[in-house]
Design a protein that fits this description.
Strand content: 5-15%
Number of strands: 4
Strand order of the largest sheet: 1-2
Largest sheet: 2 strands, antiparallel
Distance between the termini: 20 Å
Radius of gyration: 21 Å
Shape: elongated
Oligomer: single chain
């Protein structure tokens, strides 16, 4: 399942706050937002308005552009992982063994293993 924007945003805000060793209460007071609502935003359960997001970023002393860049990277990584999983499923890869169930056999029970990045490039 793909990562939602609100989840990626919440993850970024929480990582930033924790990296600063700050509590939810401290940031919520500084941003003038309820503790419960900030918690919901960080957990990706509530959508943050642009005004609220700006207030939280100000309270964390982090530029909104930096948060959005981090969110963009997280979404890109999530999308790539989801696509790789789709490719693996489409070609019948046994995830535990890392082997394509339909791989051609070279000898008795030997299979050709195609690395995941090569499969993804071939499918693109």
């Amino acid at each position: 399942m793909a990562l939602l924007l609100r989840e990626a945003l919440g993850d970024s805000l929480r990582r930033t706050r924790v990296a600063q060793s700050r509590t939810l209460r401290e940031v919520s007071n500084t941003a003038r937002v309820s503790l419960g609502y900030l918690s919901e935003v960080e957990r990706g359960r509530k959508e943050a308005s642009s005004e609220l997001l700006n207030a939280i970023c100000d309270a964390l002393a982090v530029p909104l552009a930096d948060v959005m860049s981090d969110v963009s990277e997280s979404l890109s990584e999530s999308t790539l992982a989801a696509r790789a999983a789709d490719v693996d499923a489409a070609v019948g890869v046994d995830a535990a063994a890392g082997v394509d169930a339909a791989s051609p056999r070279i000898a008795d029970d030997t299979r050709v293993v195609i690395p995941a990045p090569a499969r993804a490039l071939a499918a693109a």
